[in-house]
Write a structure and sequence with these properties.
Blueprint: H1 2-13, H2 20-31, E1 36-39, H3 46-56, E2 61-65, H4 72-76, E3 77-82, E4 87-92, E5 99-103, H5 110-114, H6 117-122, E6 124-127, E7 130-133, E8 139-144, H7 157-160, E9 165-167, H8 174-186, H9 198-209, H10 215-230, H11 240-256, H12 264-279, H13 292-299
Parallel strand pairs: 1-8, 1-9, 2-5, 5-8
Antiparallel strand pairs: 3-4, 6-7
Length: 304
C-alpha cells in the first residue's frame, strides 16, 4: 500500500506543481476519514486538487457549485410524488457520492451550509423522517474564498470544527508556475488514472487507525490543547474533538511517511492544518490571520 500512496502523491503533484506538502496534507486528511476545507483566492487550484484526489483514489465524485440561491434540497435530494404509484419517491442529491466537492461553500446561505452538518458528522442524512446512509468512504472537500470578496457568508465555528483540516495552496513559485504552463501546452495533466479503489482505501483507513501512539505523544497533544484553554491568547480553545482530530491526523501522516508509530514531528506537521481554523474566529480573513497554531507549537516542548 505504501507504494500506491507514494504513486498517488506523485500523480497529484503533476496537477498541483510545487505544493507537495499541501498534497500530502490533503491525502492525509482523507486517509484519516476526515473532511477537508481548502481556503484560498480564486484560481489557485482548489478544484483541480479535489478532482485529482478523487481520481487517484478511484472514488465516485460530484461537484456542487454553492451560490446564494442554492437550497438544502439541491444538495441532499428531494421527495417527489409518483402519480402512478401514488406515493412519494426520494431522489438522491449529489451528496450521495464518495467525494463531494462543495465549491465556494461560503457563497451559500447559512441554511444551506448547515445542511451538510449531519452528513459530515454522522455519514447520513435525514429527510422527511427517513434516514439515508451515505456511501463509504465519504469525504466532503469544501473550497472557500476570502471573506472580503463580495457575496460571502462566513462559516460558523460549529461548522468549521467539522473539517478535520484546513489548508491553503498559495501562489506557486516562478519555476513551478513555468512548469505548469509548459505542461498545459504539452498535454492534459488532469487525465489521472485510478491508483487505488474504494476497498483498498477502506483497508488503508483501518491500517491508519492501527498506527501506534505512545503515552509521551498523547501527553504532548494534551499539553498543546491544555495551553490553548488556559491561555487568554487564543479566541477559541481546542475542544476534545480537536484533540481527536490531532491524533487521527498524526497517525495518518505517520502512515504516509512509512511508519507504524507516531513521532513528535508528525504532530507538528499536521498541527497548523488541524487547529488554525479552530483557534481563530470565523470572522478572521485569511489575509489577516494570525499563526496561532505556530505560537502553540513554539510554546510547548515535545520532550517535556
Amino acid at each position: 500500500m505504501q507504494s500506491a500512496i507514494q504513486q498517488s502523491i506523485q500523480a497529484i503533484d503533476t496537477l498541483i506543481i510545487g505544493k507537495q506538502t499541501q498534497v500530502k496534507l490533503a491525502l492525509s486528511c482523507l486517509l484519516a476519514g476526515g473532511h477537508l476545507l481548502i481556503e484560498d483566492l480564486p484560481g489557485m487550484g482548489k478544484t483541480t486538487l479535489s478532482h485529482g484526489l478523487a481520481n487517484v483514489l478511484g472514488l465516485d465524485f460530484s461537484r456542487v457549485q454553492f451560490t446564494s440561491d442554492l437550497l438544502p434540497a439541491d444538495v441532499l435530494g428531494v421527495s417527489i410524488f409518483d402519480a402512478q404509484k401514488q406515493q412519494f419517491k426520494f431522489h438522491h442529491g449529489p451528496i450521495f457520492n464518495n467525494v463531494v466537492l462543495t465549491d465556494e461553500i461560503n457563497r451559500a446561505s447559512p441554511k444551506t451550509q448547515s445542511a451538510l452538518l449531519e452528513a459530515m458528522e454522522e455519514n447520513q442524512v435525514s429527510i422527511d423522517g427517513t434516514t439515508y446512509p451515505l456511501p463509504q468512504p465519504f469525504f466532503v472537500i469544501a473550497t472557500q474564498n476570502p471573506l472580503h470578496q463580495a457575496g460571502t457568508y462566513p462559516l460558523p465555528e460549529s461548522q468549521l470544527d467539522r473539517f478535520l483540516m484546513r489548508i491553503q495552496l498559495g501562489y506557486p513559485n516562478t519555476a513551478s508556475e513555468k512548469a505548469m504552463l509548459l505542461e498545459q501546452q504539452n498535454g492534459d495533466a488532469l487525465a489521472l488514472q485510478a491508483i487505488l479503489n474504494q476497498h483498498q482505501l477502506i483497508d488503508i483507513q483501518k491500517q491508519v487507525i492501527a498506527v501506534q501512539v505512545s503515552d509521551a505523544i498523547v501527553d504532548y497533544i494534551l499539553r498543546l490543547v491544555t495551553l490553548s484553554r488556559e491561555s487568554e491568547s487564543y479566541p477559541n480553545p481546542l475542544s476534545p474533538r480537536a484533540s481527536k482530530a490531532i491524533m487521527r491526523s498524526a497517525k495518518s501522516w505517520a502512515f504516509i511517511e512509512g511508519r507504524q508509530f507516531v513521532i513528535p514531528e508528525d504532530v507538528q506537521a499536521i498541527f497548523p492544518a488541524v487547529t488554525e481554523h479552530r483557534l481563530r474566529s470565523a470572522q478572521t480573513d485569511i489575509s489577516t490571520r494570525q499563526n496561532l497554531s505556530e505560537k502553540l507549537l513554539s510554546a510547548v516542548d515535545p520532550l517535556n
